[in-house]
Amino acid sequence: MVNISESAGAKIQEMLAAEEVPNLFLRIGVKEGGCSGFSYGMGFDDEKHADDTEMEIQGLKVVVDDYSLKFLNGVEIDWKDSAMGGGFTIHNPNATATCGCGSSFRTASEAGNPAAEPC
Fold first, then answer.
1. Are 105 and 37 within 8 A, CB to CB?
2. Which of 18, 57, 70, 75 is spaced 20 to 30 A from 92 at the CA atom?
3. How far apart are CA 119 and CA 113, in angstroms?
4. Taking 80 as the threshold, does the pLDDT of residue 96 lie above it?
5. Are 116 and 101 a contacting pair, CB within 8 Å?
6. What is the pLDDT of residues 16-53, one digit of tens each?
7. 70-107 burial, b if ≥16 CB within 10 A, otherwise e?
8. Alpha-carbon torsion 27, 22, 89, 113, what sign?
9. How far apart are CA 15 and CA 1, in angstroms?
């Protein structure tokens, strides 16, 4: 299960409305790479695949592919406003190591494929 805070849900709804494209949903995923081994991906999509799991969270349609689901179980996505703008933060209870920029991680059982360059 993926958790999205109220502030993150509101920001995502606002961004979806600005797109003005019907049937968009939030796709969250993981791919190998990043300085710790895996990196997060989050964006809008309108095409569902056979290996996708669909969830309803904070009034949003959220889709995660089966490969990513094992890494994202229990993840909490939040939105933080700051003087420099704001951004999404991800807390992943499955991560045993993360990079300084917070967009890359590894788990106890899988290290992924770390990139040579720092984040």
1. yes
2. 18
3. 14
4. no
5. no
6. 999 988 899 999 998 887 676 778 899 999 999 999 99
7. ebbeebebbbeeeeeeeebebebebbeebbeebbbbbb
8. positive
9. 23
Q: What is the pTM of this model?
A: 0.80
How many other CB atoms are found less than 10 A from the CB of residue 20? 7
Q: How many residues does the chain have?
A: 119
Give the pLDDT score at 113. 59
Could you write out the three-class secondary structure of the chain?
A: CCEECHHHHHHHHHHHHHHCCCCCEEEEEEEEECCCEEEEEEEEECCCCCCEEEEEECCEEEEEEHHHHHHHCCCEEEEEEECCEEEEEEECCCEEEECCCCCEEEECCCCCCCCCCCC
CA distance 78 to 19: 21
